Structures are given as structure tokens and as C-alpha cells.
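Notebook, p. 212. Picked up where the previous page left off. The plan for this session was modest: take the two constructs that came back from the sequencing core last week, fold each one, and keep the raw output in the notebook itself so nobody has to go hunting through shared drives later. Recording the first one now, exactly as returned: residue sequence, then the C-alpha cell string.
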Amino acid sequence: MNLYFYKNKKVLITGHTGFKGSWMCKALINAGAEVTGYALSAPTNPSLFELCDLESQMNSIEGDIRDLEQLLKVFKEIQPEIVIHMAAQPIVRDSYKDPVYTYETNVMGTVNICEAVRQTPSVRSFVNVTTDKVYLNKEWQWGYRENEELNGFDPYSNSKSCSELVTSSYKNSFFTDVEYQKEYGCDAPAVSTCRAGNVIGGGDFANDRIIPDCIRAVSSGQEIVVRNPYSTRPYQHVLEPVMAYLMIAEAQYKDRSLAGSYNVGPDDVDCWTTGELVQLFCNKWNKVTDVTSLGHASWINKHDGGPHEANFLKLDCSKLKNTFGWKPVWNVETAMEKIVEWSVAYMNGDDVAEVMDRQIEEFLTES
């Protein structure tokens, strides 16, 4: 895998100031792409976007995905060739606290980005990033496939299910060659949605995510609190979905028949319980503390009676594998080593951007 295709390509990313968006911007900047980001200010403090000074290396535009008028102005000015939509309210617990904002951002935000793509004939490839939680979760032991029923339980998951349906409606209604040729005189853009499993990696500072909770706990000398150690999730390093999105965006740019919906997740062996994942973090972290002054890691089971969250969720990624010959590059153990490497550099005041560059290069070399 390489990113040569993206050199000098005009790529617009929504949600670029977030954790996953920052990793994608870093990879594309390194590849020589002309990157424009559209998002609210960084959602956490500290933030990966600011730590790596990405704003000085790209065209970063502060804007709300709910503001269609501003979004259309940006598209008209930039004339992007490739659009990757990642702007979202991404936290399950926050969606219970503010469901209206969650639906406004995740549903109407998708309507707005689809409309901006529709009105911008320069766009040849559009990828909408959703989540593995879009599926009606029946707690079964096998992975969900792309043709399974969409009906997320909580407001976040459900809003992402709606985002999938909005994208499908726009594809059927506006992104057919007949309709697009009639209105704009060119072929319609290729459109895909990507449903990624739980993402982990260095530089995530979000609330209510297990790895950031681990880092915060060890940095403050506290035990890691685990709300539900028995919930099972498909965990993957952030570069797995980021590179998969870029692979799909490139492939459908070249061949529109490859557009569709794709699960992006790890192999079955990397579906871990939360407790197992935290113990792995502790093991990897404590190997480092043997030779540094950083704190010792340990955890406790402390269910806090929070809102409903699924206990078991797994993806079937056969379609992605069969279509593109894709396979995961780093298993969870390797991913955790990369997280510890990044986090130790951050806590020691080292250059975390250099760590990201090195990890991106390692990932591409091994893929």
C-alpha cells in the first residue's frame, strides 16, 4: 500500500480536527496532497491536531457541518476532487446527554455534505465514515455484514444508521449518471460508506473512551476504572481504517463500480473484551515503567450503572477483503505497543509528530 495517488490531489476532510481526522491529515500531508479541513475547533484539550501543528501545514477552515451555506461556499472555493466525511458527535454517552445536537450533527450534517457534493461537479470520490454500531445489534456471535439491518440502539448509533440511509438516498436520487449528466454534464461521483470498528491509537484525548481513560489514569497515578470489563468490541489501530478509507476513495475514483458500503474492522482474534484490552495496556505500559519514571498501571472493575451499551459486536469484513485484497496490518498487541510508544513520547515532552510520521511509514511499509 502507498499513497502516491494523493500527491497534488485536492482532498477535503470534514472533522479534521478530531483524533481520526488528525491522523488522516498527517498521512495526506506527508503524501503531498492539497488538504483542506472543515470542522469545529479541536474537540479536546489537549488535542492531537494542535500538538502536531497541523493547521500550519494545510488549509484548515473552522465551520459547523450543520451550516450548509458556509459549507457550500467552501466547496465552491476549494473545488475538491475527493471528500471524506468524518465530522460527527462520536460519543455514545454524550448522545444520551444531548440527543438533539447528536442528530443535528450526524444526520443533517450528512444531508449537508451530500448536498455540497451534489452541487460540486469537481468531486469524483466521496466517502462517508459511519460506525460498526449502525447495525441492529442482536448480540450474536458472528460478524455483521453490509446487508444486515441498520437500526442503532442509542442516539449516536441510530443517528449514524440514519446517516447511512441519507447517503443511500442521495446515491439513488442524485448520484446516478442519468440525473447527474442531465444537471451537470458529467458523470456522478463515486460514493461509499465505511463502517469502522472501535479505533485506538496515540493522541486520543476524548472522554468516555477506554484508552484515553487508561492514559489519564496512569499520568495522574490513579487506577484505571473499567465500567464494563466484559463487553466485547473489534479493536483496531487508527491507521487501519484511515488507510482503508483512503484505499477505497482512490479505488472508486479510478473505477466507480467499486463504490459501495464496506465494513472496516480487525480479524476475529482482535475482538477483545474491555477488561482484556485494559490488561494488555497495563502489561505493555509496565514494561516501559521498569526503565522510566512513569507511573505503574493497574485497573479495577467498577460498573457505574450508565446507559445501555451493547455487550457484543463484531464485523464481517469479507467484502473489503475480497474486493480489494485488503487485510489488517497490525493486530491489537502491536497497536498497543504503538499507543504506548506515542504516549510515552507525549508524557516525556518529545516530538509526537515525529512519532506519528514514523508509525505511518512503518504501517505503509508493512501493508
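Okay, moving on. Second construct, recorded in the same format:
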Amino acid sequence: MAQASYPLTLVERLALAAYDFVLSALQPMLRRKLSRRAQKEPEYALNVAQRFGQYVGDLPDGGFVWLHAVSLGETRAAALLLPTLRAAFPGMRLLLTHGTATGCVQGRSLLQPGDVQVWVPWDTAQATHRFLTHFKPRMGLLMETEVWPRLVVACQRAGVPLCLLNARMSEKSLRQAMRLAVLSGPAYRGLTLVLAQSEADAQRLQKLGCQDVRVVGNLKFDVNVSDQAQMLAKRWRGVLSARPVVMLASTRDGEESLWLEALQSNPERLARLKAHHVLWLVVPRHPQRFDEVHALIEQAGLRCVRRSAWADGEPDAETMASADAVLGDSLGEMQAYYLVSRMALLGGSFAPLGGQNLIEAAACGCPVIMGPHTFNFSKAAALAKQEGAALQVQDMQAALDLVALALAEPQWHQQAQWASVRLLQNGRGAVAQHIQALRSSPHFNLSGVGV
């Protein structure tokens, strides 16, 4: 069955040409940005030419299944789907692309012999054409929100069907896309299949021109807690269980300052929290901010121990007894952090950034306190509130007041843990629905892939 084609209007062609001109002109700026980021995350200095569509090396015969997971969250979601995808379509060969260093590092664990991992190309006509010409993918699977005009148009011209997996679209993102409809129109119309997390996401994506949209649920509800995380948490609890650990999970720029100000601006609040001997666990979202956040906490007069400084990966009882905070400056240990925490303050929700994925916290039995900004994960946030696995407050001051109240009521923690279990059980099944949708689409027939 041939893939539907949606011709570009003259205005759209002109807009794409202008877009291409601007992005091409910005390439030197991108190179400088990558060079700066490589100073803290060396992966950004690797294979820079790939960003501009310059890929080398001989490839085996047969088309790839291309999966794009731009960053860490998308790569973790892809990890939930991949084992079932490989089982459903034996012999498939994966082409895995990313845009960030954290996604790239996490993605390495997903590769099998015959798979290839590269950077996604910069969204220009030349780079995307080179990418498709070199790898010749049979199909493209894009995770969550990664829809770029030039890439989609290039795939349409090359006959590569595109599916947007675990798709989400917030009201804010919809408004932004509608303002740039001359570019977003070709991008979203060009998607062959869209598998949305919720009915609200589906309706917004249809407004942008997506043709075949199906609601299949959120892949992240199918998460399992790894044996490694449970073993690590068990080792840590031997020392950390002496005090209640309250985690600031995946904090973004400015949120640590909000926390410190709320902590120190109200003597009564500070006294209540000190009475509970709280140990704060601060885990920044982006690794390049680890040093900055550590310095910020120390400058506020708190004694902060870095996770990376633990000898043999275990906290020292004497050191931790006098510590006020731990900086979670490691990758791949988020589940262990949640497992040892009494509760977590959700990063990205106290600054107007839309929040972070709270489902992993629920899987680990860690209740969540959210700020007012959860628009990127509105459905999951609403379900968590409804079940009692999460509470929402208006600001950081209210969050710390709630922490003090919750620590004084042990039954609240137990009830919230049970609610987390219910939340996860009710949301499971998206992996199976994704596979069923791909199987049922004539554009994503994977029979014979890799043969």
C-alpha cells in the first residue's frame, strides 16, 4: 500500500527554503556550542561531522529500522519498547539516533550486533538527504515530540514511512506550533502514523494535521525496577535509613535556588524540617550542571556530599551523619535514588518548564510532590493526583511545608505508596498496544527486515 503524499503549498516551500537557509547559516554556532558542551560532556566532541549528515563506514545489506530518541527520557522509553519490538520482528537491525550526550550514553546499552548508533542530522535539506541516502532505513520511529520539518519532508520524498511513538503534545507546544503553521504543517502532515499517549494529546496532534492518530497509552507505565537498582538501594539503605531522605528529582536551572530560598527564608519551616533530620538528595537533570549545583548548595551553608565521592559506591556512615545534602552526580542510578527516598519533589514543575516524568518514581514506590507546572506530562500528573500518588502545590515554600507535614504522618507515606502501585497497574499495556498498531499498519510491515 502506497504512503499518502501531501503536496507542499508555494508558501510552505518558500518557508522551508528560508528555514533551511537560516539553519545552514547557524552551523558554525552549533559547532561552537558542541565544543563548549564537550568540556563537561566529552561525548559532544565525538563524530561531530555526523551532525551535518557526514556518515562513514560500510553498511550491511538490508534496511534499518530507524529509531530516534533525542535525549535521556526518550531513550529510556525506547528501552521499554525495544525488547518486544525485536521479539515481534526477529532479525530487525536497529539504527539508533540521538541529539544529546545523555541519550547517547544511555542508548549504548540497547545495541546488539549489527545495530548502528549515530547522531541525528541537523535539520537542513542537505544533512537529512545525506542521512537517508547513507542508511536507507526501511522506516522511522520517532519518540514523543521529535518532529522536524526538513527531516519529515525528506523522508516523504525518500518513501520512508514515519511513526511518532508515545506521542505527546501540550497546549503550550500546540500554540507554538500553530504560530509556525507554515513549517509545522508539512512536518505533522507528513507523519504516516501517530501513537498518542492520551486522547487530549491525540486531539492536539490532529489539529496540527496528523492524519492517522491512535491512542495507545504511555510506554513509561510499563517500566520495571531493575535488579541492579534494588541491589544498589539495599546497600545504601544500610547507612541512609537512619534519616528520612527527601529527593529533589531532575531539577532544572533555578529550582535549586528556589529550594534553598524556601528552606532558609522561614526559620519556623527550617526548624520543623531539622527536627525530622531530613537528608536532602539533589539530582540535577543535566550532568553539565553538577559542579554548579554543588557549589550553590555549599555557598548556602549546607554540607553537601557528592555521590561520586562515595568510596566503593557506598556512603560512609560518619560522613553522612553530618551531611545536610547529597548531590546525585551520577547517571543511570535514578531508580536507586527513588528507592531510598521517602518522597520526591518533581523537577521542572517548580519553574515554568512543564515538569518531568513521574512514573518512574511511582514504580519505585516514591510519592511525589509537584509544583504548578506539569503541562508536559499533564495526563500522568492528573492520574497520579487522582490516585493519591502525587500532591500538587503552588510553589516551593508550600512544597517544603508539605514535606514537614508528611514526615509527621507516617501513614501518609504508606498510603501514597499503595497509590503508586495502583497508578502503575492501571497504566500498563502501552508496549503491547504500540506493537499491535505497528503490526496492523501496512506501512510498517517488518516481515523480512534484516534478512
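Notes on construct two before I forget. The mean pLDDT is 93.
Flagging for discussion at group meeting.
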